[in-house]
Amino acid sequence: MQPYPRNFSHIGLSVPDLEEAVKFYTEVFGWYVIMEPSPVYNDDTPVGQMCRDVFGNDWEEFRIAHLSTGDRIGIELFEFGNNETPEDNFEYWKTGIFHFCIQDPNIEEIVETIKSYGGKQRMPIREYYPDDKPYKMVYVEDPFGNVFEIYTHSYELTYSAGEY
């Protein structure tokens, strides 16, 4: 029996400035705040214990905010006091997540908005199937160095041709 396809719940992003990240993601993408920036302490509260299970015991506190996308995917933004910007924020050849993707039909406009907020465009906007479908994509990054992709159409429509 095939397993039921599970839904995506949320993505966690580490950022150096929680307020600026909340501003970026709410103003650029229209995502809304579920929980305002709040401190989490390494203490014996249920959330303190849970975070100790996740991060170990080598932290005193961090800050977190919760956002949601238009399709109800959660975005957890974390600000750790010892935040470090990686020297190379795009090590795609290493095992692990190296990007996420956001859908916007007006790819040119959203890229310009991302850049106006301090983000970067990492490549030219490209068409996936220039002779068959007008579907476009581009890699960008937020002002904090998190790399992501923009698609103009849904994942299913983009890949429904079954091959490149």
Describe this structure in words.
By secondary structure, the protein is α+β, with helices and mostly antiparallel strands. The chain contains four helices and nine strands, in the order E-H-E-H-E-E-E-H-E-E-E-E-H. Strands 5, 6, 7, 8 and 9 form a five-stranded mixed sheet that branches. A hairpin with a 5-residue loop joins strand 3 (61-68) and strand 4 (74-80).
CA(first)-CA(last) distance:
30 Å
Computed over alpha carbons, the radius of gyration is 18 Å
Mean pLDDT across residues: 94
Structural class: alpha+beta
Keywords, separated by commas or semicolons:
5-stranded mixed beta sheet; 4 helices; alpha+beta; 164 residues; 4-stranded mixed beta sheet; 30% strand; globular
Topology:
Layout (H helix, E strand, L loop, with lengths): L9 E5 L3 H12 L2 E10 L4 H10 L5 E8 L5 E7 L19 E4 L3 H10 L3 E2 L4 E2 L8 E6 L5 E5 L3 H5 L5
Parallel strand pairs: 1-4, 5-9
Antiparallel strand pairs: 2-3, 3-4, 6-8, 7-8, 8-9
